[in-house]
């Protein structure tokens, strides 16, 4: 079986997330009831084929995908800082999405849409190849125990899929405060032919921490516990007119 884009689908026995409780605060429940039908959708309920973002956002604009928005602390601020983008966030945790709706309401956001479900299913089945202006994955579950490393999101097959959905020149931006996971992310992305490290000339290949990325309470906690955050930015290699890889982003 092939996906609509012609790629072989993932054959997974484990996923990178756990299902958590769905109990919401009064405010979260109100935001969910008021905004979800217009601003959110279940990945499993999307029509077959690529997501019609122009219709959903009510405009044509570059689409940026954030995978794992958590409680939306950073996501809402990032969407507010980039009104020129159609900002799409995918998350499995219902109270987190409800909290993001609350944050979006307070900031008056009109450029944010939410999806609940598996990011891999979204990318495989509903995101057209070469269509995204960027993908952000900030502080995904590190699964720190060695026996759980297979559950980490950033693996070779996932990175190949994500890279294929990026427009030429667009970035895959990763961040984590777990050293081993950061090294794994770097190795996996460096092995992907469609990607080039934009900061390959810097020590370790790490990107400088961008001032625009908000410091969340979880990142502050990591710093307090002695963990250093690492950013990685990999650009999608353009394809030349003959179908080969351009040298534009080669490190």
Automatic annotation (TrEMBL):
**Mind listing the UniProt keywords for this protein, alphabetically?**
Methyltransferase, S-adenosyl-L-methionine, Transferase, tRNA processing
EC numbers for this chain: 2.1.1.33
Q: What class of enzyme is it?
A: transferase
Q: Which GO terms describe its cellular component?
A: tRNA methyltransferase complex
Q: In which pathway does it act?
A: tRNA modification; N(7)-methylguanine-tRNA biosynthesis
Q: Does the keyword Methyltransferase apply?
A: yes
Name of one Pfam family that matches: Methyltransf_4
Q: Which InterPro entries match?
A: SAM-dependent_MTases_sf (IPR029063), tRNA_(Gua-N-7)_MeTrfase_Trmb (IPR003358), tRNA_methyltr_TrmB_bact (IPR055361)
What are the protein's GO molecular function terms? tRNA (guanine(46)-N7)-methyltransferase activity
Task: Cite the binding residues for substrate.
Answer: 145, 177, 216-219
Q: Which residues are recorded as binding S-adenosyl-L-methionine?
A: 66, 91, 118, 141
Q: Which reaction does it catalyse?
A: guanosine(46) in tRNA + S-adenosyl-L-methionine = N(7)-methylguanosine(46) in tRNA + S-adenosyl-L-homocysteine
The similarity comment for this entry is: Belongs to the class I-like SAM-binding methyltransferase superfamily. TrmB family.
Q: What is the stated purpose of this protein?
A: Catalyzes the formation of N(7)-methylguanine at position 46 (m7G46) in tRNA.
NCBIfam families in the cross-refs: tRNA (guanosine(46)-N7)-methyltransferase TrmB
Protein name (record): tRNA (guanine-N(7)-)-methyltransferase
């Amino acid at each position: 079986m092939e996906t609509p884009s012609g790629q072989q689908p993932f054959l997974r026995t484990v996923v990178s997330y756990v299902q958590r409780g769905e109990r919401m605060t009064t405010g979260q429940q109100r935001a969910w009831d008021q905004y979800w039908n217009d601003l959110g959708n279940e990945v499993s309920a999307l029509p077959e084929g690529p997501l019609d973002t122009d219709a959903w956002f009510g405009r044509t604009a570059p689409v940026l995908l954030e995978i794992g928005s958590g409680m939306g602390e950073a996501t809402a601020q990032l969407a507010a800082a980039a009104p020129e983008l159609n900002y799409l966030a995918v998350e499995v945790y219902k109270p987190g999405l409800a909290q993001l709706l609350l944050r979006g309401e307070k900031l008056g956001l009109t450029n944010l849409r939410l999806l609940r479900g598996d990011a891999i299913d979204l990318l495989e089945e509903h995101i057209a190849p070469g269509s995204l202006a960027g993908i952000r994955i900030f502080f995904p579950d590190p699964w720190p125990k060695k026996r759980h490393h297979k559950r980490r999101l950033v693996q070779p097959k996932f990175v190949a899929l994500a890279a294929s959905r990026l427009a030429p020149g667009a970035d895959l931006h990763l961040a984590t405060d777990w050293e081993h996971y950061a090294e794994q992310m770097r190795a996996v992305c460096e092995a992907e032919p469609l990607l080039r490290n934009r900061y390959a000339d810097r020590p370790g290949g790490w990107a400088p921490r961008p001032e625009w990325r908000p410091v969340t309470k979880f990142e502050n906690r990591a710093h307090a516990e002695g963990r250093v955050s690492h950013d990685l930015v990999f650009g999608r290699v353009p394809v030349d007119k003959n179908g080969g890889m351009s040298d534009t982003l080669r490190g």
